[in-house]
Protein 1
Amino acid sequence: MPLDALLDPQGKAVTSGLHNIGLNDLQNVRIGKHITIEVSASSESEAQKVVDEACKKLLANPVMEYYTFKLYQQN
């Protein structure tokens, strides 16, 4: 997601569009990206470490974005 301090032009455009169709109770829309990754790891902590490293090194730009992630165990 873009950092809160940065202007989000896409979010502003969507907020305006929502207001144009009568959805005036919706404010401060922020547009981000969603990435799905399949991880092979021997433990949950190892998977968290690998995903965090991928985010820090490549997937997120910490100057402009922040990230969160959730792990889901596949059966």
Note: The mean pLDDT is 93.
Protein 2
Amino acid sequence: METIQFEGIKVGLKQSKDGFILTLAVHPEDLPDDLMRDFVGSRYQVVMVRLGDTDQPLSREGEFPGDHAVKLAGIVCRDSDFWAYILTVHQDEVTGEKQAAQWLCAYLSIESRKELKTDIDARNLFIQLKRSFDLWKAQ
């Protein structure tokens, strides 16, 4: 099986009754002949990676650190190992996700984990806590 590879630029996205329609602009020199010859309605398995300014794959974590921290905080609070870490290292008993979220918010001095999106100080403290948890878990 031969793959078709080309670079495209997202120029549009809309929704139809069948799903989303992604529109890409492809430079004429990059457009594969096989793709041009295939019939409308042909199916493809698509793999895409977003490129940065240096033509290297772009990490979403670095692009939106606040969003990543909010997501990671939700994952950590559901982790029973994190509950054990809180008990072992911080001497506070946590027995579920809701308690872990409350403990985390108190520890970070925030009202909601969503504040990690915009509160840089709380986010930095969370990153330190997450590193400490990861080291503890690796023991």
Note: The radius of gyration is 22 Å.
Protein 3
Amino acid sequence: MNVLIADDDPHVRSAVRLLLEDEPGISIVADCATAEGLVERVVCSGSDIVLIDWDLPGLRGGAELRRLSNDAPGCRVVALSGRPEQRDEALRSGAVSFVCKGDASDSLLSVLRRLRAGDRSGGWR
């Protein structure tokens, strides 16, 4: 499973990369710090999953996710945020799952393992 990390905080990108680098079946294929060029980066990198900071600079929420689903229909979005109240908005906008940045790292791993196993929702219904 090819993963792109989109977060403006280099520490978050680094921490997620470290968390996932030894996870079987997961490869980090790209990362970015803004939404500019995000869809193109997803398409060019062959990403299956985008871990996206819901407060990513330049992100237009639902509009960006609709464009992503049109240009990279097999790619699924997992929204990340430090604000749990953004969960419903992210899921309504097309994210398949939501992980709060304050949650244990096992939360993100659990979502990704479910997606890798074929669960299209990553555990959210």
Note: The chain has a mean pLDDT of 89.
